[in-house]
UniProtKB/TrEMBL annotation:
Cited PANTHER family: ATP-DEPENDENT RNA HELICASE RHLE (PTHR47959:SF13), ATP-DEPENDENT RNA HELICASE RHLE-RELATED (PTHR47959)
Keywords annotated in UniProt: ATP-binding, Helicase, Hydrolase, Nucleotide-binding
One Pfam family in the UniProt entry: Helicase_C
Residues covered by the Helicase C-terminal domain: 67-174
GO cellular component: cytosol
Descriptive protein name: DEAD/DEAH box helicase
Gene Ontology MF term list: ATP binding; hydrolase activity; RNA helicase activity
Species the sequence originates in: Streptomyces sp. SID7499
InterPro entries from the UniProt entry: DEAD_box_RNA_helicase, Helicase_C-like, P-loop_NTPase
Family: Belongs to the DEAD box helicase family.
């Protein structure tokens, strides 16, 4: 759940019967499939060969860090030069790490489904402009956003689904 399903269904509910509805998604997961079955009649699906979008310019590194050292290591990585997105599993963990980074002097901001749309828009604008150099986020930032010149993606909490890993990493190497 990306955190915006209620808003999407509220919008779709407002379209008059027989009105045109178009849904776009990079992936067809269970939630998107439910939307398609509920709101679309005889939908047309366009798909791309997965190998056409394969990224070959990305490096993957794994750091095994003890829980006691996680904040220190994450802070060292966040304080580096360049723009970084750090992914965590929960809104609470995102808020906690963001507060820790800010207290450590890192220009960080939180992005998750618990933020209002205006807050999320403002946070993304600050990140894209460079006012914020570290975006700490849940999977709400893994899909559908584009940031030029992103230097690093850190999976502080590794995703449980391989598709989430690909989407998170797909924020770089473009």
């Amino acid at each position: 759940d990306m955190g915006f399903m209620p808003q999407v269904t509220a919008l779709l509910d407002q379209v008059r019967p027989g009105g045109q509805r178009m849904l776009f998604s990079a992936t067809l997961d269970r939630n998107v499939d439910r939307l398609v079955r509920t709101y679309l009649h005889d939908p047309v699906v366009h798909s791309v060969d997965p190998s056409a979008g394969a990224v070959t310019t990305m490096e993957h590194h794994v750091l095994h860090v003890h829980d006691a050292d996680k904040h220190r290591t994450t802070t060292e990585i966040a304080a580096r030069e360049g723009r970084v997105i750090m992914f965590l599993d929960t809104k609470h963990a995102v808020d906690r790490l963001t507060t820790h980074l800010l207290n450590s002097g890192v220009r960080a901001a939180a992005l998750h489904g618990g933020k209002s749309q205006p807050q999320r828009t403002r946070t993304l604008a600050q990140f894209k402009s460079g006012d914020v150099t570290v975006l700490v986020a849940t999977n709400v930032a893994a899909r559908g956003i584009h940031v030029d010149n992103l230097d690093l993606v850190v999976n502080v909490d590794p995703p449980s689904d391989h598709k989430d890993y690909l989407h998170r990493g797909g924020r770089t190497a473009r």
